[in-house]
TrEMBL record, chain A:
This is Uncharacterized protein. It comes from the Bacteria. It comes from Gimesia panareensis.
Automatic annotation (TrEMBL), chain B:
Residues 1-21 form the signal peptide. This is Outer membrane biogenesis protein BamB. Residues 86-263, 285-368 form the Pyrrolo-quinoline quinone repeat domain. It comes from the Bacteria. InterPro entries: PQQ_b-propeller_rpt (IPR018391), PQQ_rpt_dom (IPR002372), Quinoprotein_ADH-like_sf (IPR011047), WD40/YVTN_repeat-like_dom_sf (IPR015943). Gene3D superfamilies: YVTN repeat-like/Quinoprotein amine dehydrogenase. Keywords: Signal. It comes from Gimesia panareensis.
Length: 381, 403
């Protein structure tokens, strides 16, 4: 009886200790997730992350799960604690491998948490790569999907080397379904086109190619960036407006460039000290939280349905695909995108570009097409 | 015998050396002047001087820093270089001790020659502060435990540069000074080293800038100032408050940074400008300006009462700091992005192709005493500590020392 009583007391004590630890982990996580911009919440979070980092491996999955609903700052605080705990667990050979793998396979979890879990797991189980990556060709995680795409690219190249063209083509086509990074798309498209395939990259990426454009308006001495010319006040596609060089009208334009680049300098005129406005429609089947991804070497502002989303006053620091990502909520039906594009008066050869590319994408990078393309301002091709 | 004034100037250096254990705690060393306080790396070098080589991943142009027996550096991985790493190595063996990973919260686009892990980290001896081109700021203790995190581009979305940010932070007292100077939302901020909360934030000229701050401490009893350089010139600010002490407003370069030597500033401005510091009541005084000493990418160096610059052709020029007159020139194999560093009467210069060249400083000439070909692109400025050099490329971290 005494032995039973002792055992009972021990179990109660152990249970209490475990309960305190679990509760403590949740409390520290909650404090960390309260960090906000400009260092708000940092003091409490700093204490919390240091305490959380002392937890054992049982905290790893709760930390990963807590990425859901965490802002980008809090995600990094959680990363710091996770990595410290995981590092200790690996040294002590106590990493919960099965739980991590289960977490990775659950695509409903936060993509970055899944990636972190994956990178941790393969430190102790390199074979996990072959078990997990092949099934991730359309994964919500950008980085896991990228690894899956790369695996298929490598496979397709090997098939091509041994003359299995049809199988190589299939592998490349499958890889393309998941590819959103430019380097991988190029690595796929070149051989596919060489094998006779026709590929619409504009459609693949979701580039908008049909625009209405008006201008130039005055941007001499860079004053145009902050000047609200008529298109910013009201979009009236039928009216003539007073521009920098006289009367101007809206004109439909189109680009066939693979990457949706519309080059104002080459297609219209190499304006300097100028502002152009470009408008396009995007039809959404319902309310969608997506991203406008813009590439341009010019200063710009962008509105959707009359609301200013973002602006960047930078000239000629380069241009790449997805240079800027701007969150946007599209309403059901027609949405009007207005882009203000400013060119300065620099005379250097590298400062003459006046162009842009714009696509609609999910946060994961996959392109989203307008649902009613026939109703846009599309020109006959 | 050393006079009292000279002793006052030397004491802070000795104090810093003792306090840091001859650490190299930030970009351009303990006094941000490219000079080691007490360490003596080898002067006769060859391929056998490589003590160890450690593997690195991804990309990185940040210089290594050394605190005690640990080497810290940063790198970035992923197609968009949006996975940010702070790494720690054992200075004696090159063994990796830890690697902490974070996600960029700001933009990661940068020029091909640069990368997201371009700013060199800084340390106060207890913590490591790492910044990245994405304007993320990570603070860890020396064992890799996260202390705090800030995402300055997340906080201020137009604080960014499509060519990339490169300015390195410095830590003075309880404040980490982080330059975030660019074409749009341009500022420099002072963060509390314990929490990352801003002590101050000041507007800076709205133009891209890649220079790094320098420390100015005129005497033992004077307050330390931080020198912020931009296209408009140099501003001296109090590190604790960000308030301006004085300004030089004749313009300056946006890549090579100001160097301080013998209480004189050497500013990449109008070639090279020698400047006597100002005060709260007096503006700084231009002592001389010399176009022939115009630096390229590497910052100027003041050492052994001489001024050194490296031009685009890879020519090392030695000049008289009193008047800017050229004393000697030495053609090296360039080009150089890394700033030359100095110790034991020698300069250590590594070019962009990874060729480390050692030059003995003489009164009338510079003499090359050795070289090591590391055969990889090196853009990062090396560190001197533990009587050794530490250099890094994208792929490797090397220790160069005597056997």
């Amino acid at each position: 009886m005494q032995r039973s009583r002792f055992l009972f007391c021990f179990l109660c004590l152990f249970s209490a200790v475990s309960s305190v630890q679990a509760d403590d982990v949740e409390q520290q996580i909650a404090k960390i997730k309260q960090v906000q911009k400009e260092g708000q919440g940092n003091q409490a979070a700093s204490q919390a992350v240091q305490q959380l980092s002392q937890a054992d491996q049982s905290a790893l999955i709760p930390i990963l799960s807590s990425f859901e609903g965490a802002n980008p700052l809090a995600v990094n605080w959680l990363c710091g604690a996770f990595e410290t705990i995981a590092s200790k667990a690996i040294q002590q050979n106590k990493l919960p491998k099965e739980q991590l793998e289960k977490f990775i396979l659950d695509k409903s979890h936060n993509p970055r948490a899944r990636r972190l879990a994956y990178e941790t797991l393969i430190k102790v189980d390199p074979e996990a790569t072959e078990r997990l990556i092949p099934g991730m060709i359309n994964d919500p995680s950008v980085t896991l999907r990228r690894d899956a795409v790369q695996r298929l690219i490598d496979q397709a190249k090997e098939l091509q080397k041994v003359g299995k063209k049809d199988e190589a083509k299939q592998a490349f086509q499958q890889a393309l379904t998941g590819a959103t990074d430019d380097d991988q798309v190029k690595a796929i498209v070149k051989p596919l086109r060489g094998l006779g395939e026709k590929i619409d990259l504009q459609k693949h990426f979701g580039f908008l190619s049909d625009w209405k454009i008006i201008g130039p308006f005055d941007n001499r001495e860079l004053k145009g960036y902050d000047t609200a010319y008529p298109p910013e006040k009201k979009l009236d596609f039928s009216s003539a407006l007073k521009g920098k060089e006289g009367e101007v009208n809206w004109k439909p334009v189109n680009t066939e460039d693979d990457y949706g680049i519309f080059d104002i300098a080459k297609s219209i005129s190499p304006y300097k000290g100028a502002v152009m406005y470009c408008a396009a429609d995007f039809y959404s089947p319902g309310e969608q939280e997506l991203e406008i991804r813009l590439g341009t070497p010019n200063a710009w502002k962008i509105w959707v349905n009359g609301k200013l989303l973002f602006a960047r006053n930078e000239y000629h620091r380069g241009m790449i695909m997805d240079q800027y990502s701007v969150p946007v909520t599209f309403k059901p039906g027609k949405n009007v995108i207005l882009l203000k594009l400013c060119q300065n008066e620099q005379t250097e050869s590298w400062a003459q570009r006046y162009q842009f590319q714009l696509r609609i994408a999910r946060p994961s990078g996959t392109g989203v097409l307008s649902e009613k393309p026939e109703a846009t301002t599309q020109l006959s091709r | 015998m050393m006079n009292k004034n000279a002793l006052k100037l030397v004491l802070p250096l000795i104090a810093i050396g003792l306090c840091c254990g001859a650490d190299w705690p930030q970009f351009r060393g303990p006094m941000t002047n490219n000079v080691a306080t007490s360490d003596t790396p080898p002067t006769l070098v060859d391929q056998e001087s490589i003590a160890w080589t450690a593997d690195l991943e991804g990309r990185g142009a940040s210089g290594p820093i050394v605190v005690g027996d640990k080497v810290f550096l940063t790198c970035a991985t992923g197609f968009k270089q949006d996975q940010l790493h702070v790494l720690c190595f054992d200075a004696k063996t090159g063994k990796q001790l830890w690697d902490r990973q974070f996600w960029a919260t700001g933009r990661t686009q940068c020029h091909n020659k640069m990368c997201v892990a371009t700013p060199t980290p800084a340390s106060d001896g207890k913590r490591v502060f790492a910044t990245f081109s994405s304007n993320d700021v990570v603070c860890l203790d020396l064992d890799g435990n996260l202390l705090w995190f800030r995402g300055l581009s997340h906080d201020f979305p137009n604080a960014s540069n499509s060519l990339g940010m490169a300015s390195s932070p410095i830590v003075v007292g309880e404040t980490l000074i982080v330059p975030v100077e660019n074409d749009d939302d341009s500022f420099t901020t002072g963060l509390d080293v314990k929490t990352g909360i801003s002590r101050w934030r000041i507007k800076r000229p709205r133009v891209a800038n890649w220079t790094s701050p320098a420390i100015l401490k005129p005497s033992a009893d004077a307050e330390t100032l931080v020198l912020l350089q931009s296209s408009e010139g140099v501003t001296a600010v109090y590190p604790e408050t960000g308030e301006t002490a004085w300004k030089y407003e004749q313009g300056a370069g946006r890549i090579p940074s100001t160097t301080v030597g013998d209480n004189t500033l050497y500013v990449p401005s109008n070639g090279l400008t020698a400047l006597a510091p100002g005060s709260s009541s007096e503006p700084p005084k231009v002592l001389w300006q010399e176009q022939k000493l115009s630096p390229a990418t590497a910052s100027p160096l003041f050492y052994q009462k001489k001024v050194f610059t490296v031009n685009r052709a890879g020519v090392l020029t030695c000049a008289n700091p009193e008047d800017g007159e050229v004393i000697w020139r030495l053609r090296l194999k360039g080009p150089f992005s890394a700033t030359p560093i100095a110790a034991a009467n020698h300069l250590y210069l590594v070019n962009e192709k990874g060729l480390l060249q050692v030059v003995q400083v003489g009164a009338d000439e510079g003499k090359q005493t050795g070289e090591i070909d590391l055969k990889e692109t090196i853009l990062a400025t090396p560190a001197i500590a533990d009587n050794a050099l530490f250099l890094r490329s994208d792929q490797h971290l090397w220790k160069i020392s005597s056997k």
